[in-house]
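Researcher: Predict the fold of Glutamate--tRNA ligase, mitochondrial.
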Amino acid sequence: MMKLLVSSVSRTKHSYDAFRKSRYAGVANQVRTAVNKSGQRFGSNPISFEQRLRAEGPARTRFAPSPTGYLHLGSLRTALFNYLIAKATGGQFLLRIEDTDQSRTVADAERRLYEDLEWAGIEWDEGPKIGGPYGPYRQSERLPLYREYTEKLLESGHAYRCFCAPTRLRELAELKKKHGIPPSYDRTCSHISKEESDDKASKNDAYVVRLKADSIYPQYKDLIFRKQGGVKIHKSDKEFDDPILMKTDGFPTYHLANVVDDHLMNITHVVRGSEWLNSTPMHIALYQAFGWQEPKFAHISLLVDKDNQKLSKRVQSANIRTLREEGILPEALTNFVALLGWSHDKKSDLLSMQELIDIWSLRFTRGDTKVTFNKLWHLQKKHALRYLEAPAYQREASLRTIIEHVVKPIVSRCDAAAITSPEEYSFYTSIEKGLPRQKYITKMVRPIIASRQYATPQEFISKNPFFFTAPNRERLEEHMPSMKLHEVPSVVLQDFSALTVVGSLKAFTNVKNKDWNIVKLAELRKDLIDVAAMTTMQSFKSGDRTPEWQLTINKAWGRLIHASLRWAILGGMKGPDGSEVMSALGKDECLRRLASAVEILNEKNDSAKENDAGGSLDNSMIACATMDARAAGDVEKVMREKLDTEKDEDEEFGSLDG
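Model: Structure tokens for Glutamate--tRNA ligase, mitochondrial follow.
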């Protein structure tokens, strides 16, 4: 069985190599030809980083996580960098599960790994769930292969069995530590003859298999850190590195398994964290012991926190599932992660997955990379806005992204919160569950995204409470806007009446149901401002009615009516344009909220009525004419008629009076 598995992998490897050569043979030549035509010598400095990566043809890369924990920023970055190299060169990206450390395996880690990678848009071409020509892709299912290749090392003399008891090894390690000597082995078992070693193994004596390392590990050229290795590893005749390749339980160590798998799976580039930099010369030695050509190695920078300490995978903010649950957009996260230790020449850091593939290169930094999440939140807002403003050919896909990663999480949170806090979601729960609620949230979230204020579903909910329930009386009384016209002459203020604001709020009663939309509501609001400003200009002497004063008065009324509507509808809360909110809330809900505001304003006016001289024309009557102006299409004509003819206020607005 073991020989059949090895033979099958070998045959598949050769046939797959032939396929790749036939399919991709011209890729590298095309790049070289293009470079030569431009007058640049291949391999010289003028060649761009992007060309240099693609000139070598399709790459085969892999991500080989251990299911001993969950995906975090560091491991996602490793997966992403390998994925982008493969896709940028027209190659393949493999997923391999290194589950040889059975004692530390977390039960649901593998399942969550698949979910998180798929969520992030990192799809593997070969690996678990989908298979491939080099399977199996789970190391625990490849044990016969590791034993086969361990036997080859034993046969060639590049490895030996070590029968030392764990107690002896512990004592040896403690003694070396006491004298300040790095951990090493004294090769006690390397002198055992092959016959004796085979005999002890056949009798089931416990043993491990060690690599018989040379005194100096070979050098290699790292794609980031340049020349590495060539370090003397034996301090004396009694100190040897000789790492363990096969454990007593029959499972390989990482050193053996990853070398065997990378070779048999035809991996061309190994991109991994710089913590493996010192182990790579040993891996090169293993490749040479087998007589194999090693892949290219690139060791990416260490991720550190604001205190320059290694970013812990146990920090919740670095956990991918935590970021997912917070509502981070997948492309915002992959964009953010791609920039951790990599650079480019584009003017903007806002990059989709496809844009990353198009410009990907090996421009990795060598020093530690500090992780600060401000950039992530910036990219979150920018990606959300990009989806909202997507061109026509991308609009459907972008809307699906907003629905899936923004709207649905908000709806889910609101549905759950409404059960425990119904009073805070009284309007929201009046909307039918399912699609109607999704449509409502979509309308509400669009202006938030457009104003670059969207961050996460929970922040959207907490910052916009009156999207879900009407402001109560206490809120309205505490946040009533100042009923004043700013920056206008005092003579004008003498004739100013807050009833004009009341009339402005009441005017929305006459909007027809079919006209309750963003455009019509914005037009009405503008007309209300114009009418109020025109009335106020009547207080000026004819010679003082200059364009400059007209502009000042318009701005003053604009601020007041905007503030009054925001107060009535959202309790004075900051947020998107009032017309968009009112359109989404619907006519019935808005009229209820406006009625509550009008009642409070009327009470305030009644309390001050005794001190009011009465005045001539009630300004609220002017404001009420606006709807007639919309119908007739001539605001000025209706206003002239209203200045000459008084109408019964109750007839026009009675339905909203307290």
